[in-house]
Fold this protein.
Amino acid sequence: MLSLAAAPMTADEEVSRNDPATLDLDRIFSAGEFKERRLGFLRWSRHSPSYFTLEEARGDHKGENLVRVDAATGATEVVVPAAAFVPSGASEALKIDSFKFSEDESRVLIYTNSQRVWRQKTRGDYWVLEVGRPGSLRQLGGDAEPATLMFAKFSPDGTRVAYVRENNLHVQELDGMKITAVTNDRSANLINGTSDWVNEEELHIRDAFRWSPDGSSILFWQFDTSGVGQFHLINNTDGSYPQITSFPYPKVGETNSATRLGVVGAGGGEVLWLDLPGDPREHYLPRAEWSPDGKHILVQQLNRLQNRNRVMLADARTGTTRDVLNESDEAWLENDNPIRWLEGGAAFLWLSERDGWRHAYLASTDGTRFDRITGGDFDLIQVVAVDEADGWLYFSASPDNPTRHDLYRQRLGGGTPERLSPETQRGWHDYEFSPDGRWAMHTYSTFSQPPVVDLVRFPDHRVLRVLEDNGMLRDKLAALHAPGTGFTRVEIGDGVLLDVSFIHPPALDPARRYPLLIHVYGEPASQTVRDKWQGERGMWHWMLAQQGYLVASIENRGTPVPRGRAWRKMAFRQIGLLAADDQAAGVRALLKQWPHADPARVGVWGWSGGGSMSLQAIFRFPDLYAMAMAVAPNPSQLLYDTIYQERYMGLPEDNAENYGLGSPITHANGLRGDLLLVHGTGDDNGHYQGTELLIDELIAHNKVFTAVPYPNRSHAISEGTNTVRHFHTTLTHYLHRHLPVDSAPAFAAP
């Protein structure tokens, strides 16, 4: 266990605490001086060129007003005053987490008292009120316990609200407030309208029910977790005896939940189960949606290996299905096709890599048409908006630089893409379009510049107003001895070029040798080399650069960058192998390119998949890496969940050798440098179990290492008082001790 006993601060360190030019852990993680400001909750109107948001009430009123903002002029109108959010008999207004309007915008649904369910806060209380009717605020759920309602949504006519409560669907009438349980399963193994753990985590299924267009029926997912292995989290700190949380978690090669789709009347009754082919435990149902006329349901079904997506159209009255489209890949398919209807429901938008690049296609529901919309040697990264009325598809792409995101548009009938993001703004652009495609909230940042949020008009991308410029943060940054930042590429053989981002000390001395710290992820789920503001983690890297470190990140093959299908799918069946080889080759190329980097002081750190990659680095390349800090790693791929690991590796019985070689625990005997293991014991995602097994293996090989468990903390290691600050203290302390900077004062843990 790493000791973090405080050491007295040196005079230089005492001065730095009050020096606006110098970063320290307190300024970043305690005082929050460098936290960027973000816009509050916004929702575009469906009936006017305006959006709704919350604004602090002025004068004697406490709480927030719900206001409408005119997109063109910025004029505001109070739609619901803060006083209307005060429940009868209460003295304070509800703390609003989010809100949504009925279709005609005459009623508003308020979400409050939100509680986290695994990754997100999806459980809480819901209230409804009539716009323009003082005293109409009412809580939904009847006698439900506090914070037990999930995903409440209005019926299309706005007269009812459906929600999930204790794994069953309920519908509540707003005239009379009568509640009907439309599913009433009492089995602890049946989940209706929301998801089990693995489908939520890996396929992002959380809100798992849909009103029919006429409001007469509800489509919903059901998960049967019987037979799925139970994982147990042990809480040793909240009482004299351990408290145990158990939940179904299917590990690689094990039994999955049985998943099916049902249609039930809004008033309850018998469920119509869609007639879907195949074993429901050997297939996934990532997407389903009503057709605009309500007569059919479009369903996507992935096989267990996730290399085939079978798209079917189901009859909503009989449940019978017919095939519409089959998408397949020799490696895997991404779950990147939310259902976007075109031509009134006769067609839908589809993304495919079938020609080697991710492009958009128009697919008809009768199966006779599959027409390409975009084309060329570039990837469509993400569909941003579809303006069918004017015939435009808006999408993000970056044909010339995979570290960036720009906005393009192209005719739905094909043609030449048109870049809309300003040429003068090279970096990362995100957009949230209005329903009519005329307006968007636009967020722009770079690797060295924090976000600016503005309201833009299309098609000319004219900025009407800046909504958040992060001026205070920019002033703080301007006062710093700012490190140097930039991007480069390294060649690792056979013409393979890897993108690299870097941060170096403010006054880089080419005659001096600096320690090099590599920040790694490396798996198919995330990209690290991005020309985008990195937030507090980026500021921590800046602090290390100020203290004399070179910090770099290398994008290996197999990560989800817009460099074509072959680049991304290169990692198939060799997770942990190709990436670690690329990373090591990239580091060696950097050392040749940077004579100021010390080959004897190379360290690596990463989180989750990056923690696993850090272990692979120091175990398999002990001549290259002197130190590693592995946060929440997955030392054995056999311990992770079915959907993620099998997608990239296949089944363990079919790829046993690479499951072993790709697991860091296999190579633990190779440890020669300094290793720090950090893990939350309450991690429901990458379990602390794996780190304990690795500790056992290291002990068996007589390897010296340091381990810091964080009691009951999740995968994010963020819960509890001072956790984030302490976590970064731990890493910084270890880094200074085991990858020291020449002629630098010893780091003092406060």
Summary: Residues 184-258+265-372 form a domain with the Methanol Dehydrogenase; Chain A fold (CATH 2.140.10.30). The chain has four domains: 11-33+480-738, 39-181, 184-258+265-372, 373-407+420-470.
